[in-house]
Amino acid sequence: MNLLGSSHNGLRKTRLLTVLDMGSSKVVCVIARLRPLDHTQYLPGRTHHIEILGFGVQRSRGIKSGVVMDMAAAEQSVRLAVDAAEKMAGLIVDSLIVNFSSARLRSVVVHGEYDVSGREVSMRDVRSVLASASRKAFALDRHIVHSIPLNYSLDSEKGISDPIGMTGNLLGVDVHVLTAETVPLRNLEACINRAHISVEAMVATPLASGLAVLVDDEARLGAACIDIGGGTTTFSVFSDNRFVHADAIPVGGNHVTLDIARGFSMPLEDAERLKVMHGSTLPGGVDDRHMISVAPIADERSEMQYPRAVLTRIIQARVEEILEMVRDRLNRSGFGHVIGKRIVLTGGGSQLTGLPETARKILGRNVRVGRPLGVSGLPTLAKGSAFSAVVGLMIYPQTASFEEKIVHTIGQLKTGTGGRFQRVGQWLRESF
């Protein structure tokens, strides 16, 4: 079964794909070749093998908490990252898939119904019930990032994965709709368009990260993927091989760095280096005796010596705050019971020493650190958790056929003549 609840019956092809990870700390562009696969045993939803052709990474500028704040600076970061990937691959890019990690994401489940009058359910009936759910989704008055059928019902029978060919009176469907505010998305697209590149699809970061790091049993039995990025922390919930919920908070690893810089009155670059080299979320018995050197912002005094325990306390306070916010959001979502004891941490912020242990204590679940799986040719620096989202963007088209079903109907409801949803649907059909 496809990870997101649908199978893709079209002819699979070898295709080139370009993706762009627009993060608050880095901008990453990857050009890849996707070759059809016959079978994958452990990685859900994979239909193609991913081979990296070009890779470019730049420091992110003009982006805060996943939102474009300085158009010119963000455009320059995009140009430099894409240019590096193009040079490595020997190709010119004209379109790409980009992620979106604003804290203003919102997940809802809408229900649609359609009367089939006791006859056999056809594909036309499925489109009609999806259109019924889509009308409710557009009543939310927000931009629809993803619209994913979760399950169907037929009269009193619920939890049906594919109702075609079954007989009943009332066909129903539950659709997970992930929405975002329109203005940040438009600004993100405008930033990329200014670099003379078109956007074929926007993918929510929590979905992309989950696709990259979850293994088959986790996606089937239920798990949450928490991506601790630079400016935002996002989390996604998967159950029964479906993406069922996502949320985001505007706090991430950059806030830990900022706390260190303020606490020690030191430059941000030095604070980041101190966090990476000596940072931990767990106090140790030797921390009070282990001294670290801190360079002040001004030059009028020499380096200061502090116990490592001071640094640990600063980091621990912010990390615990982030995890407690995620825990509370997860409990309020109503999906806390779905994930059981499975939590996967990823993102650049997940690499802090002691973070899994702290997460187990606060979240009360089994925790592992997830890294991108099933990709060949990534540079050594890009094989860690910080690059999960960009790998997930390359997996997304392999699993996105579920949105093809409703993309045409949604496009008609939204614009009458076409639009982003129809463009994405056409692109998916042509490419995969």
From TrEMBL:
This is Cell division protein FtsA. Self-interacts. Interacts with FtsZ. The keyword Cell membrane applies. The keyword Cell division applies. Cell division protein that is involved in the assembly of the Z ring. May serve as a membrane anchor for the Z ring. Pfam families: FtsA, SHS2_FTSA. The lineage of its organism: Bacteria, Pseudomonadati, Pseudomonadota, Alphaproteobacteria, Hyphomicrobiales. One of its GO terms (biological process) is FtsZ-dependent cytokinesis. It is a peripheral membrane protein. Residues 17-213 form the SHS2 domain. It is found in: Cell membrane. SMART domains: FtsA. Its main location: membrane. GO terms for cellular component: cell division site; cytoplasmic side of plasma membrane. CDD domains: ASKHA_NBD_FtsA. Belongs to the FtsA/MreB family. Keywords: Cell cycle, Cell division, Cell membrane, Membrane. InterPro entries: ATPase_NBD (IPR043129), Cell_div_FtsA (IPR020823), FtsA/MreB (IPR050696), SHS2_FtsA (IPR003494).
